[in-house]
Amino acid sequence: MSVDDRPLASFRVSMRDIDIYGHVHNSRYLDYCEDAVVEFLRQRQILSHFRHTSSGVAYHVKKAEITFHSPIDLDDVVEAKVDVEKIGRTSLSFAIELFRQRDGAHCASAHFVWVCVGLSDSRPTPIPEVTRAALSPG
């Protein structure tokens, strides 16, 4: 497994995430994906860029989209991968992939769009250059 193929985050599915059909409830996938994005920012040591108290801006979720491929069950270990898809003037797009560790099955693909907003008016504002640079490859 190359560095790029390694999962960014992994976690074990808890009983509280299971629906009446015995697999992870669809709404929990959003939580898993959001946790993976936060771990992505933490591992890059740029989580402070996304805290309003230290960055002077906030980020609101504009869009969250998930495509389900294979169910995740109780006690499964889920592995997540995150990529920055696009950095726009005022928005960021993330791609998140969830995999089941026991068999490598691709369980879900998600796309998040976050919009950078001003603290005083919650209106879109340009992403700070320091954040843009920290998210750019290389």
Automatic annotation (TrEMBL):
Hydrolase in keyword set: yes
Ranges that cross the membrane: none
GO molecular function (one): fatty acyl-CoA hydrolase activity
Signal peptide start and end residues: none
Annotated keywords: Hydrolase
Presence of keyword NAD: no
Entries under Pfam families matching the protein: 4HBT_2
Family classification: Belongs to the 4-hydroxybenzoyl-CoA thioesterase family.
PANTHER family in the cross-refs: 4-HYDROXYBENZOYL-COA THIOESTERASE FAMILY MEMBER, NOVEL THIOESTERASE SUPERFAMILY DOMAIN AND SAPOSIN A-TYPE DOMAIN CONTAINING PROTEIN (0610012H03RIK)
Protein name: Acyl-CoA thioesterase
Species of origin: Rhizobium changzhiense
